[in-house]
Amino acid sequence: GAGVSQSPSNKVTEKGKDVELRCDPISGHTALYWYRQSLGQGLEFLIYFQGNSAPDKSGLPSDRFSAERTGGSVSTLTIQRTQQEDSAVYLCASSLVAGNTEAFFGQGTRLTVV
Amino acid sequence: GNSVTQMEGPVTLSEEAFLTINCTYTATGYPSLFWYVQYPGEGLQLLLKATKADDKGSNKGFEATYRKETTSFHLEKGSVQVSDSAVYFCALVPLQAGTALIFGKGTTLSVSS
Predict the structure, then answer these.
(1) Closest B-chain CA to A43
(2) Tell me: the pLDDT tens digits for A61-96?
(3) Interface membership of B106 toward A (CB under 8 Å)
(4) Of residues B43, B91, B100, nearest to A56 (C-beta)
(5) Residues with Cβ < 8 Å from B73, sequence gap 6 or more?
């Protein structure tokens, strides 16, 4: 696609429910990143993929968070048993390869847990 | 570990004022350094970058110089415009190949006419 596409753009969920956030990277980009943006916390790294592998998942806050990428393209970030502290904007980015290349960001998914 | 520290905001300036947003980093070796900008209602986009010591990145009138002696990458612009109002993020990519961007907390800039 022309840019990084994320869906849904907004999600309101009840505490304890599971949610899935989707990211469709730029075609041909092998690296894909997930970040979380909260007020006062800046951009918190969650996980990145090179192809379908996740060399660094050190930023996932707990075992309720998981992500996968299939076919070297679309990625899904899943949050199980959501908590109110999970409320944030979840950003996805992609780049040609991981590392010293420009990352292109999607518009994000705003998650609100009530 | 690797980290980025930015000056706290918000920064409020009048149009045509000089802008400096401070950024310092901690990293093993010599990382690549970036400034990203997030305009209201838009996604993050790359503003400029520098990949080695003494490199100067520049774009849209903004500049930043990679200073390894002070581990800094301060963002400057000689004359800001209202349209520069945005959140600015300093970031680094560690020296090791195949790693993710590490961001600072962001600095909000508000420019009034």
Answers:
(1) B103
(2) 999 999 999 888 999 999 999 999 999 999 999 998
(3) yes
(4) B100
(5) B23, B24, B25, B33, B35, B50, B64, B65, B66, B67, B90
